[in-house]
Amino acid sequence: METTINGINYEINPETITKKEALTIGSKVQVLYTEYSTQHVYPGIVTNIIGFKDNPTIEVTYINQSYSSVDIKTAHITNKTTDYQITVSNNIEFNLNKDNAIELLKQDIDNKKIELTKAQNKFDWFVKQYGKMIEGAK
């Protein structure tokens, strides 16, 4: 049996009650990720709903933001997924510092550019100094 209480749909069986939540692409969600025996909660957004016949899949992109870094990850959640759970979020629960995340991502880009320049310089030096001895080097 299905019923609505305070605008929320519930599926009621003789021994259980299950909250039904509508998800669409763009829905804000809370992602519960279980790693070994530790659980982490992250803010996320539904980015795709894939209607596989035998295994419908919800794709969620979530953000792990700490004081010094931002990781953007994607989870594919099905009825067989055991390490991820999701629930609809509201703006109060959606804890993300956008300005800080953007600044950290820009810093990461700058650091990667420096690493790329260093690698290119090492390559150029190697080719210049030892390229004549290596067959096929240009």
What do these coordinates show?
- With 138 residues, this protein is an alpha+beta fold.
- It has two domains: 73 residues, SH3 type barrels (Roll), CATH 2.30.30; 42 residues, no CATH class.
- 24% of the residues lie in helices and 41% in strands.
- It is built from one helix and eight strands.
- The strands form two sheets. Strands 7-6-5-4-8 form a five-stranded antiparallel sheet. The chain has a three-stranded antiparallel sheet with strand order 1-2-3, with no helix packed on it.
- The mean pLDDT is 80.
Question: TL;DR?
Answer:
This protein is of the alpha+beta class. Helices cover 24% and strands 41% of the residues.
CATH class of the largest domain: Mainly Beta
Strand content: 35-45%
Q: What is the CATH architecture descriptor of the largest domain?
A: Roll
Order of helices and strands: EEEEEEEEH
Which residues form runs of ≥5 with pLDDT under 50? none
Report the CATH topology name of the largest domain: SH3 type barrels
Shape: elongated
Estimate percent helicity.
10-25%
- Biggest sheet: strands side by side, in what order? 7-6-5-4-8
Number of strands: 8
Largest sheet: 5 strands, antiparallel
Find the structural class using helix and strand composition. alpha+beta
Number of domains: 2
Q: What radius of gyration results from the CA coordinates?
A: 23 Å
Enumerate how many helices there are, as a single number. Answer: 1
End-to-end gap:
74 Å
Instruction: Provide mean pLDDT, rounded.
Output: 80
